[in-house]
Amino acid sequence: MKKIHHLFVAYMQPSSAEGRKTIAEVKRILRQYPVSVEIRERNKAEKKCCWKADLVITIGGDGTFLRAAQFNERAMMFAVNQDPRQKVGFFTRASRKDFARKFRKIMEGKYTIIKSTRLETSINGKNIELALNEIFFGDKRPYKMCRYLLNIQGRKEKQRSSGLIIATGSGSHAWFQSAGGKSFPITSRKFAFVVREPYEGKERYAIKRGIIGKKGYLKITSLDDNNMVVVDALSRPYAVPKGTTATIKIAKKPLYLVSV
């Protein structure tokens, strides 16, 4: 197992006494080990924070984990649930009560790595940040329909709908599933999509959902000026004006999730 020398810790500002205790406990435990540690509030994290890190630790819920994952290309990640009573913790593997024991195992090399698939998105050939959960394509105004040309590996169809959700295995357990998609393992080297509320008047769409293999792609060419792409429901919206194409495929770099 890889030796850990440099840590980066991203935390969410606590809103409860338990959250404050969790942050204090993690800091206390980390001081006991001969490692360098950089700690930042999650909204102040940036890409260079993870350049030297061997391990990124997040203290919060899934939102904090996803935020840090957007800046992380190579380091392993371990998530601590700041307050299990309040935070959704699909990715979290520890809490205040068991962090000391689990971090000791990590430092001893007694852990496993889960390779979680990520998505790579380019807009007219320019890459944006990687997605761990999902990509959303739709109108900037959620109450408006969007128009686009959908291209699934050469199979094309013009559509109007409330947008598309394109998900990895981890994302298939979240928004994607709520929109009618089926969940699949987070380690799967496939991704899936679902069309939200397709508007079918005189026409009936043949492409409403599907699964795409690791070498496949999905392209969406905007037919409106107000369309956008959002990564993991966290990033700023990326404009996809009329005539612009967003291309989505499996990223070469998975996320290395530490489990003990």
Structure report:
It is a single chain. Helix content is 13%, strand content 35%. It is mostly beta strands and 260 residues long. The protein has two domains: 6-110, Probable inorganic polyphosphate/atp-NAD kinase, domain 1 (Rossmann fold); 119-252, Probable inorganic polyphosphate/atp-NAD kinase, domain 2 (Tumour Suppressor Smad4, Sandwich). Helix 1 links the parallel strand 1 and strand 2 (36-41). The longest helix has 14 residues, at 17-30.
Biggest sheet: strand arrangement: 2-1-3-4-18-5
Instruction: Report the uncertain regions.
Output: none
Q: Using DSSP, what is the number of strands?
A: 18
Ends: how far apart? 13 Å
Any chance you could write out the topology, listing elements then pairs?
Layout (H helix, E strand, L loop, with lengths): L5 E6 L5 H14 L5 E6 L13 E6 L1 H8 L6 E6 L17 H9 L4 E5 L2 E5 L2 E2 L6 E6 L6 E7 L2 E7 L2 E4 L7 H4 L12 E5 L13 E4 L5 E5 L4 E5 L6 E2 L5 E6 L4 E5 L1
